[in-house]
Amino acid sequence: xxxxxxxxxxxxxxxxxxxxxxxxxxxxxxxxxxxxxxxxxxxxxxxxxxxxxxxxxxxxxxxxxxxxxxxxxxxxxxxxxxxxxxxxxxxxxxxxxxxxxxxxxxxxxxxxxxxxxxxxxxxxxxxxxxxxxxxxxxxxxxxxxxxxxxxxxxxxxxxxxxxxxxxxxxxxxxxxxxxxxxxxxxxxxxxxxxxxxxxxxxxxxx
Length: 206
Hints:
The chain has one domain. It has ten helices and no strands. It has helices at residues 2-16, 20-32, 34-56, 60-65, 67-92, 106-118, 121-130, 142-170, 172-175, 179-201. Helix 2 packs parallel to helix 8 (142-170) and helix 3 packs antiparallel against helix 8 (142-170). The longest helix has 29 residues, at 142-170. Mean pLDDT is 78; it is low at 95-102.
């Protein structure tokens, strides 16, 4: 229980660190309501299940030992972040009333969450570096322990990102009153995603 509580506290802090995932949740929730943020959050959580499985089965080690595999995946991730930046910028220049954009496809948001998370090799490598530190030989099979730790991160993501979605969604009605504010948020988000893409491109394996 002590190990679980320690990992839970650590994962909460990590979930609050600014990054593409929580930035996307905040932006979508503020502009389109908390439900949109929850769909994206579910996508990110699904992505974490992928990373947990990869680490538990040792697949993530490939990205740590193979520079080619790591570079290919981070190129895909950076390209997708740039695509999202372009979409935000495109939306900021649109003449369409933003209230009409609230009916976003839930599966699209869910899918974007998965892609953003899965195409970030740093997540798997981070899991590979962090989770083994909590392993205890007396607590059962290593794979089962790793899966348990990964699920703790999933639960934490649902709690923290869900809270961010509700918080940002609460100011949504106020944002809907100002087209200029909404455009500003889209443009700021576009710049942030470009910067995050550049950061990912220059990332090195752990």
